[in-house]
Amino acid sequence: MRDRVFIIIAGAVVGLLAVILVLQGNPANMGFCIACFIRDISGALGLHRAGVVQYLRPEIIGLVLGSFVTALYVREFKATGGSSPVLRFFLGMLMMAGALIFLGCPLRMVLRLAGGDWNAMVALPGYVLGVWFGTLFLRRGYTLGRSQEQAPVNGYAGPFMAIVLLILLVTAPAFIFFSEEGPGSMSAPLFLTLGAGLLVGILAQRTRLCTMGAIRDLILFKDYHLFLGFVAIFVVAMIGNLFTGQFAPGFAEQPVAHIDHLWNFSGMTVVGLAAVLAGGCPMRQLILTGEGQSDALITVLGMAGGAAFMHNFGLAGSPAGVSPAGQWIVIISLVVLFIIGAANTRLLAAGKNKEKAKAS
Amino acid sequence: MTELVDCRGLSCPEPVMLARQALEKAADQPVTVFVSNAVARDNVTRAAKAMGRQVKVEDEGEDFKLFISK
Question: pLDDT by residue (tens digit) across A55-85?
């Protein structure tokens, strides 16, 4: 029961902070968007040159460091890794590809919905479909294999990178790109964005909040624990938007969004399936990175690489819609995801007996 | 003889799926599950309790040993 209350509070805090961040300067319906923010960081580092989406987003830094400090404090920090790192990099890329077609990670999808952007209502069933595809693989024994314990330095790599990014943000050297217009130029003040990231990092580490796990556990186990957090984000953000006059229902003219229904739907199918196969939504990957999981860090790096790929080749969606090349990326992503899913599916139970013998 | 399920190095939902499988197969017999992270420990515990079992958690070095019984 206490857990239930805690995850609802965590979701509510995420929803509330998202509304506040937008009021204080973040792009509309983008209080939090893990995919967008990692994409902005990619741009700030010059990995892509889309001038309107370049910024070292403090929310990302805060999420990793908040989780890191909490994990250390509760003794859950543990450097592990080595579970199919290359495939995880690709899964990160594909997760980002799908998100940049729709223009948002699952968290932003919920926030867009809470802001009255009905395009997110088209994307949500697509996302659920993707997660459902993923559970089909899980039921057939999909696994990326066991992770191993690693030297602690592997686990510190993620938090270290977050600190380096923070230093670059504060010192703003000339080689870092900061957007002068567009979404990349819009941000709430540093203490708010960093503070919000830290707070959500702490809460998400403790509650294991995950926008993919929410749907997955519901489908797999009829377990609605994480789903409560998911719903709390939506409800509180919607109430917050209504109270602050940020609720603007409709399909057209929504901020950082387009109305290509088919690609909104299927883009999020890519994200849902990739997230199940990678074991967590974009936000969850940041939290796990803070806990010392280098498998999650490699997924985050894959996302950063994916963002560069999508923007350098003009594949990302934009308010004008999704280009034909971007549409092909969705189809190719789905094919690759099904291959990764099928190739790593084996009957876990069959391999289990050998493991059992070892354990006893 | 207790059924042993080794979920070390696996991340959720795999430990939960394996534990549930084992619990269903073991009927009333106790099952011991090894996990290597706190998330799996909590999730397997929650799943076992939802199935009406009792769970006793022991630290096993860096890992956790979950003794699940009726």
Answer: 999 999 999 999 999 999 999 999 999 999 9
pLDDT in tens, A297-353: 999 999 999 999 999 999 999 999 999 999 999 999 999 999 999 999 975 444 444
CB contact under 8 A, A146 and B10: yes
Residue A293, token pair as written in the block: 């999981």
Distance (Å) from the alpha carbon of B6 to chain A's nearest alpha carbon: 6
Query: How many domains does one find in chain A?
Result: 1
Domain that holds residue A153: 2-347
The secondary structure of A60-91 as a DSSP string is HHHHHHHHHHHHHHTT----EE-SSHHHHHHH
ipTM score for this prediction: 0.92
For chain A, list residues whose CB is within 8 angstroms of any CB belonging to chain B: 3, 74, 76, 78, 80, 83, 138-139, 143, 145-149, 208, 213, 216-217, 220-221, 223, 225, 279, 348-349, 352, 355-356, 358-360
Q: Do A146 and B42 touch (CB under 8 A)?
A: no
Domains of chain B are 3-69 (3.30.110.40)
Contact across the interface for A78 and B21, Cβ inside 8 Å: no
* Separation CA A249–CA A349 (nearest Å): 48
